[in-house]
Amino acid sequence: MVKIAGLKKAYGATQALKGLDFSVPKGQVVGLLGPNGAGKSTTMRILAGYVVADEGTVQVGGEDVVAGSVATRRRIGYLPENNPLYEEMMVVDFLRFVAEVRQVPRAQQRQRLEHAIERCGLSTVLGKDISQLSKGYRQRVGLAQAILHEPDLLILDEPTSGLDPNQIVEIRHLIAELGKEKTVILSTHILSEVEATCQRVLIIADGKLVADGAPEQLGKGEGTVTVVVASRVGLTLEAGTVRSVLEAVPGVSRVETSEAEGGGTLGFALRYQNEDPRRGVFEAAVKNDLLLLEMRRQQVSLEETFRKLTGA
What we know:
Layout: E1 2-11, E2 14-24, E3 29-33, H1 40-47, E4 55-60, E5 63-64, H2 69-74, E6 76-79, H3 91-101, H4 106-119, H5 135-147, E7 153-157, H6 165-178, E8 183-187, H7 191-197, E9 200-205, E10 208-213, H8 215-218, E11 222-231, H9 239-247, E12 252-258, E13 265-273, H10 278-287, E14 290-299, H11 302-309
Parallel strand pairs: 3-8, 3-9, 6-7, 7-8
Antiparallel strand pairs: 1-2, 1-4, 4-5, 9-10, 11-13, 11-14, 12-13
Helix pairs in contact: 3-4
């Protein structure tokens, strides 16, 4: 559905994109992450045909977004971060206006309007001016105008920005539902939103793609194993000795002191990379007469991966 190759864009002396490459297959929900100024919004604006790239190619459904500008825009639904709406218009009048602008055939307008209104939960506010709506309902109107013409690709730039927790959950559920029917590219700073909604994550830093994978896979191979040990034979444990035993376990890169369970026990947090050390920890405990009271693994979170890859 989307293919981007060698994408570059500069604003004066600032190089926003430095040769971005990625593709998105049909029917996938993709989260586009990155710190402020990484190039996320620029990428989305170029993809939507709102901004022209300096170099590189962008295709939607096999059509170039510059050479086939009108054709590609017909296939795209776009919700910008600032969600521009005509506040003096009633919701229903605004959506009818969008249907006309989008050149939805007259014979299909009623059906398309009803479908968008139902999907976005707007039936109770159709007669209200947009200026009277809460931020959550304005976002719903923005989503409704983006899906009104039944696009193949939805581009959503910070769709939950400024919403309260309840509104965020509502919009998140709506996006998840839309993702069952369409290809969605979603930009957000809320990492839990990506984990709950997206099948794939693209992380951009300094205008380049630095990570690409499923949310649960990006931190795979790294994490922490927390252990609590006691002496099997009732002797007093020496923290330094036990630490040395754990440091020698294959895959363990660092050992830190952690919470224990009281007298006669010691707790440690074992950082690892690439190799799960739990089997080695168990074997080391048996070999050194240690009683393993607790062993718990926690993989690296998406937040930790994001901070690492973006230099934070």
